[in-house]
Every structure is written in C-alpha cells, then in structure tokens.
Design brief:
Elements lengths: L2 H10 L18 E5 L3 H11 L4 E5 L3 H10 L7 E5 L4 H6 L6 H7 L8 E4 L2 E17 H6 L8 H14 L4 E4 L6 H13 L16 H13 L12 H9 L3 E7 L18 E4 L14 E8 L5 H14 L2 H6 L5 E2 L11 H7 L12 H13 L1 H4 L5 H18 L5
Length: 406
Amino acid sequence: MKLKIMAAAGLLSLMTTGAYAGCTYENPVPLKSLSAGFEAWKSVTDAMAECGNVEAELDQEFRTKQPAAFAANPSLYHIGGVSNGTVTPLLNEGTIRPLDDLVAQYGGNLSPNQLIRINGQVMAVAMMVNTQHLMYRKDILDDLGLAVPTTWNEVLEVAAAIEAADVVEYPLGATMKSGWNLAQDFNNMFLGYGGSFVNDDSTPAVNSEAGVKALEMMKATTAFMDPEYLVSDSTYVQQQFQQGKIAMANLWASRAGAMDDPAESQVVDKVYAAAAPLAMEGGAPATTLWWDGIVIAKNIPDAEAESAFRVAMEGLDTEMVEGANDEAIWLISGYAPSRMAEGAIATATAEPAPISYPSTSQMGLMHTALGNELPAFFTGERGARDTLAAVEAAYTTAAKEAGILE
C-alpha cells in the first residue's frame, strides 16, 4: 500500500456510521498491549479497556521492546501498536500474524485504506496517518508581521526576526534527541533535498550532496534552539510549545491536539499548523508520511488472538474518535478534521507529496546507523562528510551481518 494514496483517501473521503455506547464485546481473557505513549494511543487503549481484562502499556521506547517481547513464546503482548517505521522488525522475525480471517469476521467497520497488506496478506490495521509538519505561534507571527514560512530558508529568516524581537525563549524547537529522533529529522531533510538512502544494490548512498545539505541546514536551525536540543524528543518539544517557550517546530501531527488542552497548555488557540517546509524549491515537503495502527502477535493461542482483535476493533471505532477527534488524523469513520489537522492535510496532499517512510530492512539498518553516528556532527567531533562516511560504514557492517550485502 502506498501511504500517499491511503492518506488522501483517509483525509478527504471520510465516512460516517453510527456509534455504539461502550464496548459491545465482553472480553473473557487477560490481554496486554504495548504501544507508543502519545494521546491518541491513550484514547484507543482506554476504549479497549472498556471491554475488560485489558492491560495497556504506553511507552515511547516501545520500538526497542517489541521485537524481543513478540518473539517470546508465548508472546509477552497480544496487541502491538506499530507504524510503518516500527513494524518491519516484527515482519522480518515473523512474530505477528496475518489478519485476513479476523478482518473478514470482525472488521466490517474497517475501510480498505486501513488494511496494511504485505505480500497480499493483511498484517496490520491502520488507525491514523501522521507526519511532522510546521507548527507555529500564529499570534507571534501576526504581531511581528511575519508570513508563515514555506521553505527552510524562510524558517531561518523568520526565526531570526523572532529572536530579534525577544518575545520567546527560543524561536525554534526540534525533535533532535540523539538516536532515533535525530535520525528521523535527518531523514526528513535528506529526502527534502532529493536524497536516496540506498542504491539499487542496497549499498548506502547518504554520503552525498543531499546528505551534506541536510546536515548543514539542520545545524543552521540549532542556532535558534535550546542548546540542549540533543535531548529534545517529541514530548520535550510539545512541552516547550505548551509552556510558551518556542514559536515554531516541525512536530508530529499527533501532538497537535495537546496544544489546546487547557489542563496543561498555556497557548490554547495560539498554535496553528502548516505544511512541512520545503528544503528546495520544487521539491516535496521535507518530511515523511506515516501510519500508526495495530498488529496481533503470532505466538499466542488463536482464541486469544481472536479476543485481541475484537478488543482492538472496539478501540478503533467511531465512538472513540468522537471523544478524541483532535488527537490524530484518524482513518476511522466519524473523524472531522479540525484546524490543527490543516498542516498534515496540506503536507499529505502537496504536489509533489512526501514519500511514505520506507518499511524495509535496509531502512531499519540505515535509521539505526544514522542515530548512532549523527550526534558526532552536532557536537563538533566530525565534519559532515566524515559523519556520513561513518554512517555508511556502520550501515554496511550491519547489512552484511543481516545478509543484505555480501
């Protein structure tokens, strides 16, 4: 499935159906789920819990825990929350099961664009699309007479103007925590400059002009950030926004709803969203498109898998969406896009559009190599070319160990 097509279908062709009150299925067996910890997953797992006997673990480090947990026999979890960037290890290890029979029996409310097929089999059910897009303080830009930036060069110009006006602590925030987050921010910028991660023969291709430009632009943005940006993950940036410390950030759409939560945000109705900025004129927005959804463990009894799927369907129903509409760009019937969805919609429907994050073994190895090696560039230990050479060397070693390269 091409996520660009799925995103457009989910965002622009939303369906409406009736909702049920509470859970229509009384779950008879203890079930456990492991997923990310952002608000959308909390709403989904809370809805699952209404069926009884459901224990949900929400953990931002889920991606490092799932492979071993699902490889155990029996699996330590029944339901997994995944994305197109985190499902690959589970597919490679064969630890999740095809869902075609369960979809046929219990997935009548699912739309075709929710069914993630791998080699013709339904291996996951998507619940939402996600992307990193530009979130900004509209009040600050309006007060300073600044237009919403559409390119990363314009982001730098606007950030400089905000800094000169001294109206926030830092003009920019970014999810540049060393490791997975920093690698993903590089991925976005690298693709924005037209880069390709690997060649046709699976050899690495990041030590290129696009790679250098991506690092240089990322470094330029850090001049307008909290100096501790290498510990800044999505929650860190979300809280910077909520506490009024930053004016702009390329942040996940799944975090947008938290900006208007009066219980924790000081900037209610002040943060707006626009398409992810372009890295180069004529290119796609410098980001990637994602889906998040559920998988069911293979190493559990079939009866437990059936219960897990039925519980999951209760978590992904219209009633849940109606109570959590602004927490995600849902692919579930009943979703009504809000103003905070405008940036994700503009990003997903841009021409040319960003690509879907590649769900490949090669990309998994590349992402890890980038996360391990890129911090040396930002701490000044290595230059751009040397850093990218180190990334390629680390990838090559891992690819040989995995049998991808000879």
